[in-house]
DNA sequence: AACCGACTCAACCGCGGACGA
DNA sequence: ATCGTCCGCGGTTGAGTCGGT
């Protein structure tokens, strides 16, 4: 009997303790909100009536102390839900509709600088919410990952602030820079030395190896038929390289190589989307080539180290030598030369190894790889 | 017309920082 | 120093929509 009474009392105490703990937990915001003050709180989409109540309250009382909104208005919504609804939908300064191309470019640029800092990014895009930006980015991320496309110039992003690079393609400008005085922004700005984004063309990225066209047999046959007519339309860099290559190796071509000529055509892409860029400064003059600091190709030629990674590794030294001696390296786009220069001088190159920059390097260097090496790449990939 | 998968986006969740008692 | 509350952030979910079959 006594034992039973003790057991009952102990059980009651434990029960009361449990109830107390449950009650205290229900008052914490993190577990919020379903039953605050004994009233079941509503979840899910807001109705226009709820919107009107909340908007009227905020208009009269201003924002802040969201948890008393329910008490004052009778809304069956928690404070967090009210704040979210106001900031993301009811604020009068919100911009509705899809992101403009300018805004998309800005988001891409900001994400390259600060990562998933949606709220910070939203500060740079007036009228846009962090939620909108986050959704936009995640959608874009999903699409481009599926397509095997890079998100931005990711591989060279670490270079942008590389203090050792004396001739960077771009740098990060902070709000307290002298020439930024007067701006209220606290977010650093990405500044390109020689180029600026055309705002309605957000497709600025380096094409990865995966975008190099992989022709099937039928397409190869078709390609062979049109190769001759296309040859005269090749970009100058390809034509001049082929001329140069022919100058170097005048011996009769190997018949097996001849059959592969159509595979050796330059890829149908431009290493950089030139349409996305406007040149602000004229290309460097020829005298630049003589200046080791501003060599049109990286002086230490580290970019060439990435190439054997893609090839079979047996003949890369001769290919490097050929590339180095190639007269037409002047045809390399000045911007790409800057990128290569930065990459070759980057500490990140040492830290991450060549794989981190492989795609970027290869897309730039590809047009300058002799055809026979391209064939080797095609066979081994 | 029905179904299905992809996509969009509003809303929720959990966490952590700030701040006052 | 500790606790409770508020607030904001980033990640995730799920309902609705759209387009293709």
TrEMBL record:
The lineage of its organism: Eukaryota, Viridiplantae, Streptophyta, Embryophyta, Tracheophyta. It comes from the Eukaryota. This is Uncharacterized protein. Keywords: DNA-binding, Nucleus, Repeat, Signal, Transcription, Transcription regulation. Residues 38-90, 91-145 form the HTH myb-type domain. GO terms for molecular function: DNA binding. PANTHER family: TRANSCRIPTION FACTOR MYB33-RELATED, TRANSCRIPTION FACTOR MYB65. Residues 1-26 form the signal peptide. Its main location: nucleus. The keyword Ion transport does not apply. SMART domains: SANT. Residues 234-262 are annotated as: Disordered. GO terms for cellular component: nucleus.
């Amino acid at each position: 009997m006594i034992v039973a009474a003790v057991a009952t009392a102990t059980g009651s105490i434990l029960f009361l303790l449990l109830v107390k703990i449950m009650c205290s937990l229900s008052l914490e915001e993190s577990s919020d909100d379903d039953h605050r003050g004994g009233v079941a709180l509503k979840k899910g989409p807001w109705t226009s009536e709820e919107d009107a109540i909340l908007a009227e309250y905020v208009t009269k009382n201003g924002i802040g102390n969201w948890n008393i909104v329910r008490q004052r208005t009778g809304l069956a919504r928690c404070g967090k839900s009210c704040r979210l609804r106001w900031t993301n939908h009811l604020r009068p300064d919100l911009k509705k509709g899809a992101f403009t191309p300018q805004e998309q470019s800005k988001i891409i640029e900001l994400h390259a600088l600060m990562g998933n800092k949606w709220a910070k990014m939203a500060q740079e895009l007036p009228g846009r919410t962090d939620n909108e930006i986050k959704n936009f980015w995640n959608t874009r991320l999903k699409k481009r990952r599926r397509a095997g496309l890079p998100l931005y110039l990711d591989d060279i992003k670490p270079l942008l602030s590389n203090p050792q690079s004396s001739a960077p393609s771009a740098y990060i400008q902070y709000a307290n820079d002298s020439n930024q005085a007067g701006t209220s922004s606290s977010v650093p700005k990405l500044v390109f030395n020689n180029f600026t984004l055309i705002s309605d063309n957000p497709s600025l990225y380096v094409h990865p190896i995966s975008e190099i066209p992989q022709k099937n047999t039928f397409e190869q046959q078709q390609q062979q038929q049109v190769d001759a007519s296309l040859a005269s339309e090749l970009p100058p860099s390809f034509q001049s390289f082929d001329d140069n290559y022919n100058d170097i190796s005048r011996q009769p071509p190997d018949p097996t190589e001849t059959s592969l000529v159509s595979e050796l055509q330059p890829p149908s892409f431009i290493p950089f989307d030139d349409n996305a860029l406007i040149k602000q400064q004229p290309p460097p003059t020829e005298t630049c080539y003589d200046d080791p600091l501003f060599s049109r190709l990286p002086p230490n030629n580290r970019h060439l180290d990435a190439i054997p990674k893609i090839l079979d590794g047996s003949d890369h030294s001769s290919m490097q030598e050929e590339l180095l001696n190639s007269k037409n390296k002047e045809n390399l786009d000045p911007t790409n030369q800057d990128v290569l220069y930065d990459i070759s001088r980057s500490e990140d190159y040492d830290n991450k190894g060549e794989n981190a920059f492989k795609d970027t390097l290869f897309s730039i260097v590809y047009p300058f790889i002799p055809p026979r090496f391209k064939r080797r790449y095609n066979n081994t990939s």
